[in-house]
Fold this sequence. Notes:
The chain has 403 residues and is an alpha/beta fold. The chain is 38% helix and 17% strand.
Amino acid sequence: xxxxxxxxxxxxxxxxxxxxxxxxxxxxxxxxxxxxxxxxxxxxxxxxxxxxxxxxxxxxxxxxxxxxxxxxxxxxxxxxxxxxxxxxxxxxxxxxxxxxxxxxxxxxxxxxxxxxxxxxxxxxxxxxxxxxxxxxxxxxxxxxxxxxxxxxxxxxxxxxxxxxxxxxxxxxxxxxxxxxxxxxxxxxxxxxxxxxxxxxxxxxxxxxxxxxxxxxxxxxxxxxxxxxxxxxxxxxxxxxxxxxxxxxxxxxxxxxxxxxxxxxxxxxxxxxxxxxxxxxxxxxxxxxxxxxxxxxxxxxxxxxxxxxxxxxxxxxxxxxxxxxxxxxxxxxxxxxxxxxxxxxxxxxxxxxxxxxxxxxxxxxxxxxxxxxxxxxxxxxxxxxxxxxxxxxxxxxxxxxxxx
Length: 403
């Protein structure tokens, strides 16, 4: 066989359409293409979601899109009565049309996707196929097609836990529907040459469920993109404490306490988010502002004293944002409940953990530690996009030549 040249990436969400689900493989695609490989992407056509902050990363990458039919009314939690009615009606239809989870966005797209996949396999003629999920049905549909392309190297990247996860309704599925999802996961692990997940703990759980395929399972970690940390912007009036991202459910009390603490201690706190925050808790030292571009945001992070990180429940092992904040070189102040993630932050000397139910007490202890803080550069360097992509391509080339 000749060397690895062309890589086809299957990703439901991919810039300039879609949200956070498209970030991981948009970044990989950019770096892989820059390394001299031909890259093409198959993604869902989400014309109503066109504000991806990673659009610039995928400039010049060919993207072929299939029609997706997931109901728009199910894409976010409804607040108005009319939207709640639409949500329930759409969910009922999805329940009738699906056998596994009704929340999988690709559930009704099997033939639209598989038709396009076959076209691109013939026209683009890739030697490697990489499919990423969630949504996991897209991985399953790809697995069904792979039997027709035995010469092609394949890798399945599960960004989140599948049958033991809490997203996409898996934790609330009936036993019958859960068994169907387990069968899909088993098919994917069996059909693909390699399968990856971002965290070692994820891989260990996967190995327990699929012991006969343990040798094909490995970690493909999250990362920070060096390009995002390069900025010529001059920062004036930088904050002491800065956060950027969604405000998760259950943080209302913590946000109010953080606001009061900021005012009392005169700690300039800046919250950059598109989420709604109670305007009554804003003050001269606690400001909620619109999101910034990645480069502009991280320029402000590097100029601040502390990087604020909220730890959402359900994220047991890590957050993509963690790597970016660590690379900025400031101590992290992580607010949430104790977890593997909070333990990892303190174990690796990345910053301080603040218990959400003891916020004022713990935050007082954390503030002031930056003078003795030394960035863990060794830890950070292991998670640069360049390093992780280099390791990925090394793995693919090795597997390709062995295949």
